[in-house]
Specification:
With about 150 residues, the chain is an alpha+beta fold. It contains three helices and nine strands. A hairpin with a 2-residue loop joins strand 6 and strand 7. The termini are far apart.
Length: about 150
């Protein structure tokens, strides 16, 4: 009986270790912003709050730029590229990335941010964070964005 129990435990253990795509494999490749909601609290340490909502297809008209293109490489580096409406590169920012649980950590010269990473349907993922969007020194702005894997 003890041998059967041990065999069953070992079988379940091995089955649970079967290779499943992890967040690292899912994230690798190019992603483009689809939509975002950004709530800026106390803009520039003032008393005013602001909400920016960009829905799919509104990037051109609201931000006067194309959706951000971010490539996550298997060596743990990433590069975000920003293009104007004429598809010319206007800015790029890169650094290193890694996961701890369901949190994606991005490190760059501009600073470090962590995002709750949630896989959605249709090659999309949700990135949620509190960060310093308005550069007032306080990571009090709420970022909630959807990106599409290309």
């Amino acid at each position: 009986m003890k041998a059967i129990y041990s065999f069953l435990c070992l079988t379940f253990l091995l089955a649970s270790c079967a290779r499943q795509p992890d967040n690292y494999e899912l994230l690798e490749g190019e992603w483009r912003n689809v939509s975002l909601k950004l709530i800026q609290h106390t803009i520039a340490n003032g008393t005013t709050d602001s909400t920016l909502t960009i829905k799919n297809g509104d990037w051109d008209s609201i931000l006067q730029m194309k959706p951000i293109r971010t490539t996550f490489s298997s060596n743990g580096t990433y590069m975000s590229r920003y293009y104007n409406l004429k598809d010319s590169l206007i800015f790029e920012s890169g650094g290193h990335w890694h996961f701890i649980g369901d949190s994606l950590y991005l490190s760059s010269d501009e600073g470090d941010n962590s995002y709750f990473f949630q896989v959605l349907e249709n090659n999309q993922a949700r990135f949620v964070s509190r960060l310093d969007w308005d550069n007032d020194g306080q990571p009090d702005d709420e970022y909630d964005g959807i990106q599409q894997k290309q």
